[in-house]
Structure to design on (641 residues):
């Protein structure tokens, strides 16, 4: 019964979110900003599939996000491919890179896994820095939006917005489906107790690798979408700080919650874009001129949020909300069956 | 005087020495990481930032207070060591019981804060720092010119690394440390102040990074970003060597520096990535690392 009310609550929340996303352009939201949030939300959700549901902290997801962006951008600009082909190529590249990186990285566990993914992603960064087609420090500029399937021109922000929204919602649905599938349950078992999963006869390495490739492919899709939306691709997206950024988004929103990464992506992107305004506002309120320089210290502010999150706010925004909701329910129904707090949540 | 490889011997030797210099930094940093990981179970991402802080402090000491290289070689590690003690006592202490990944994330946050502050103070361009007068110039060895400063870097870091190895493996203090790595609860029951030992270990590890930073100041350009890329290479070094053995870290660090130096001679395009390639090969052949023992 409790699970039913949870389900209903979830449907209501996601329905409201989807409605808000559908109406956002009419409500005067700046489409490119919302588009950017959508791309990063998908990126963070794909990343969360690994950290939140498989327990693997990849520190190399920038390789998939940025690498796919380069491939998609190059395909659309230089080869003149239609957007959907560009996106497909980018995603395929990320999946392939994920297969290679994953196969190497799962040979070690825990913290070594993170260090290996970081080092391998750094290899790709150096490759992008030196390879001729990436344009080095300048990156790829002026990626055309083209026509979807050769028919629908995406030049208007509105058309692009609904296409991207559709793709992101579909990808999100795929992630939700994966998590609730038997496959997703095995991933959770690996996260909770790997030796136990092994002793139950599961080929843990294979499940990890499939999860890694899926996460990489979806991150690649997000990166290709980003290249399409913004029309350029630079080294920033393959740099390790991008891997750090996606970790932060997931952490702020809530590790292992479905909606957490979306909330986290929104908060982090908004912060990056609006930090200067926030600084000016704080300077006005407090009269401290120092706050005016806040816009230039995104790195520092990001670091402070990281530290605060790890020390005091590990459940993230959505995790805390779920915690509050559970507490409230527990108070209303003191006789909740034992272990009911363990039911699937999201 | 040619090995018939198309490269004159002096050029080869000087690249080799440059590789050894880099290897010395890898060795000192991976040694610190290994010591910290052994006792704290935390991978200290902030190691690169604290290495940078050591170098910037050396520069600042000269710039603002006229303190010379030799003084800063002592003061800088002390200051950074104290910062390390504060970081351990105020932040790291609270996450030991959690999953390892939180240690990495917390120190990543600390890294971003330190680098962000330094960047807003000094920008990203290099700060000039020249070697001390006593070590300028080069010595003619007959077959090559040996730059004095580089020789000093290699010598000093090898001595420091060996001293650390000796302390940990051969003294009573080191025995406590090794016992604490093995089983902190029992060591505490024997009356050893383990929390203090943990704090001091972290302080020592990051002081080592700062020492490397001061040594690096005259050879690598001092800038707020100097630790960023280095720490990722050092992570690869740690994966290759495995963190189980102190001597392993030292040897792996030096050897990889030399290999990197040789790559610069024979195939410069790959010099930035050769360490990562070696990591891939080691992972395929010996996943636990060269000196690692995996359960």
């Amino acid at each position: 019964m409790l699970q039913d009310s949870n389900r209903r609550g979830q449907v209501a929340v996601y329905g409201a979110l989807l409605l808000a996303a559908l109406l956002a352009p009419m409500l005067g939201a700046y489409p490119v900003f919302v588009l950017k949030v959508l791309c990063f939300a998908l990126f963070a959700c794909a990343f969360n599939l690994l950290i939140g549901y498989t327990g693997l902290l990849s520190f190399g997801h920038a390789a998939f996000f940025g690498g796919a962006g380069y491939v998609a951008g190059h395909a659309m600009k230089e080869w003149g491919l239609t957007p959907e082909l560009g996106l497909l190529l980018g995603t395929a590249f990320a999946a392939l890179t994920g297969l290679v990186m994953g196969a190497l990285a799962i040979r070690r566990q825990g913290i070594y896994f993170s260090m290996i993914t970081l080092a391998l992603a750094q290899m790709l960064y150096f490759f992008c820095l030196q390879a001729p087609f990436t344009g080095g420090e300048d990156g790829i500029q002026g990626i055309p939006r083209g026509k979807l399937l050769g028919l629908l021109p995406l030049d208007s922000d509105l058309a692009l917005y609904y296409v991207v929204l559709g793709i992101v919602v579909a990808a999100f649905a795929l992630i939700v489906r994966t998590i609730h599938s038997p496959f997703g349950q095995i991933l959770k078992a690996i996260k909770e107790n790997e030796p136990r999963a092994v002793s139950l006869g599961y080929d843990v390495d294979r499940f990890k690798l499939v999860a890694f490739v899926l996460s990489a492919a979806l991150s690649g899709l997000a990166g290709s979408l980003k290249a399409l939306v913004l029309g350029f691709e630079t080294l920033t997206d393959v740099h390790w700080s991008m891997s750090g950024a996606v970790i932060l988004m997931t952490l702020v929103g809530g590790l292992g919650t479905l909606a957490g990464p979306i909330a986290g992506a929104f908060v982090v992107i908004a912060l990056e874009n609006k930090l200067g305004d926030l600084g000016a506002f704080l300077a006005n309120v407090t009269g401290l001129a120092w706050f005016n320089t806040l816009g230039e210290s995104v790195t520092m502010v990001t670091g402070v949020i990281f530290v605060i999150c790890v020390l005091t706010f590990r459940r993230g925004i959505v995790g805390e909300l779920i915690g509050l909701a559970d507490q409230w329910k527990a108070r209303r129904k003191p006789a909740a069956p034992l272990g009911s707090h363990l039911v699937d949540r999201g | 005087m040619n090995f018939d490889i198309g490269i004159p011997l002096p050029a080869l030797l000087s690249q080799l020495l440059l590789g050894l210099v880099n290897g010395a930094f890898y060795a000192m940093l991976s040694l610190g990481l290994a010591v910290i990981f052994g006792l704290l179970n935390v991978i200290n991402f902030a190691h690169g930032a604290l290495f940078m802080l050591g170098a910037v402090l050396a520069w600042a000491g000269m710039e603002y207070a006229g303190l010379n290289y030799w003084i800063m070689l002592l003061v800088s590690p002390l200051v950074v060591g104290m910062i390390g003690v504060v970081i351990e006592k105020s932040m790291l202490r609270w996450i030991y019981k959690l999953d390892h990944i939180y240690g990495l994330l917390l120190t990543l946050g600390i890294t971003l804060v330190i680098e962000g502050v330094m960047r807003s103070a000094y920008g990203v361009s290099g700060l000039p720092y020249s070697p001390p007068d006593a070590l300028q110039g080069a010595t003619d060895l007959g077959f090559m010119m040996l730059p004095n400063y580089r020789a000093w870097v290699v010598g000093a870091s090898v001595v420091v690394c060996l001293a650390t190895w000796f302390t940990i493996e051969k003294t009573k203090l080191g025995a406590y440390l090794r016992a604490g790595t093995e089983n902190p609860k029992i060591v505490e029951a024997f009356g050893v102040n383990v929390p203090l030992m943990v704090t001091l270990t972290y302080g020592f590890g990051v002081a080592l990074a700062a020492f490397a930073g001061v040594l690096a100041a005259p050879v690598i350009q001092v800038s707020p970003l100097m630790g960023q890329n280095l720490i990722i290479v050092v992570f690869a070094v740690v994966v290759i060597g495995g963190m189980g053995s102190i001597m392993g870290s030292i040897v792996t660090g030096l050897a990889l520096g030399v290999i990197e130096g040789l790559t610069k001679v024979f195939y410069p395009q790959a010099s930035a990535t050769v360490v990562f390639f070696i990591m891939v090969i080691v992972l395929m052949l010996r996943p636990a690392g060269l000196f690692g023992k995996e359960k």
Residues 138 and 148 of chain B are 5 Å apart (CA to CA). The radius of gyration of chain B is 19 Å.
